[in-house]
Amino acid sequence: MKNKITELFKIDYPIIQGGMIWASGWRLAAAVSNAGGLGIIGAGSMYPNVLQEHIQKCKKATQKPFAVNIPMLYPDLEQLMDIVVAEGVKIVFTSAGNPKTWTTFLKEKGIQVVHVVSSVKFALKAQEAGVDAIVAEGFEAGGHNGRDETTTLTLIPLVKEKISIPIIAAGGISSGSAMLAAMVLGADAVQVGSRFVASHEASSHPSFKQKVVEAGEGDTHLTLKELAPVRLLKNKFYSDIQKLYMEGTNAEALKALLGRARAKKGMFEGDLEEGELEIGQVAALIHDIKPAGEIVKTMMKEFEEAKTRVLSL
Fold first, then answer.
1. CA distance 153 to 156
2. Domain ranges of the chain
3. Which letter does DSSP use for residue 290 in this model?
4. What is the DSSP string of 140-157?
5. Pick from 65, 18, 10, 14: which is nearest to 43 by CA?
6. At a CB cut-off of 8 Å and minimum separation 6, what does 206 contact?
7. How far apart are CA 194 and CA 28, in angstroms?
8. Is pLDDT of 160 > 90?
9. 223-245 residue pLDDT tens
10. pLDDT-derived band at 156, boundaries 50, 70, 90
11. How far apart are CA 258 and CA 266, in angstroms?
12. In angstroms, rounded to a whole number, what is the distance separating the alpha carbons of residues 287 and 282?
């Protein structure tokens, strides 16, 4: 399938795997890339030496393009950037920060840059910074999210109206029919996170994967806006947050409850009560754990079937 994104990244299918913390190691990235999509190593949960190890292992596991996602809010940021340059990474997705800070540096090294945004305003800033493409992520998405709560269905056409560079839609996409819908609205590709969490190759804890499969409608919620908005599964930790809100909390109290490594505790170590379990609304539509390559294959099959259904209308 040829379009702006597949030609930009030299991949077979316009399916981009999300760079999710505690889930997106080299095994998942290599599996998605080998299946024809673009696999991404999520550096947000990695120390510099760990990221370097994952990049080196991914290069051995696939000869196809893969990327690294780097949230720009970590103290080791300069080291992470130096590592992707030294290891010859060709594509970097940046998020959670100003795209002007690192885009020029990366592009001068011959690296393609994609920035994740949640609004038209930030999409325009990313385009002005010179990125090659943007990920427009709707309110449905798991993990850290936009404050405006703009849904994917609304965000994609809004962004399409204003920018000229390729758009990758994210948030609430786990099937080929959702992929077609996003592309009809103006996206050139989709970024899929939650569906790949429930894959064999994801580095997240098996108990967390099973919790995702068991999730139903309304089992996730966007909260902690005073710190950084995050969508997570409802559990004891979530209930503790809600109790603070009912008591009239402030940012300091929320920060104290959150503490350190709360996401690691839940998603990587498997503490389903005290951990932060970041996942999207689309978890309610995920019913099994399967190989990442099979997920890509199934999405493309569903995509073609959806196109046929549309033509018959």
1. 6
2. 4-203+283-311, 216-281
3. B
4. T-SEE--SS---HHHHHH
5. 18
6. 270
7. 13
8. yes
9. 998 888 899 999 999 999 999 99
10. very high
11. 12
12. 10
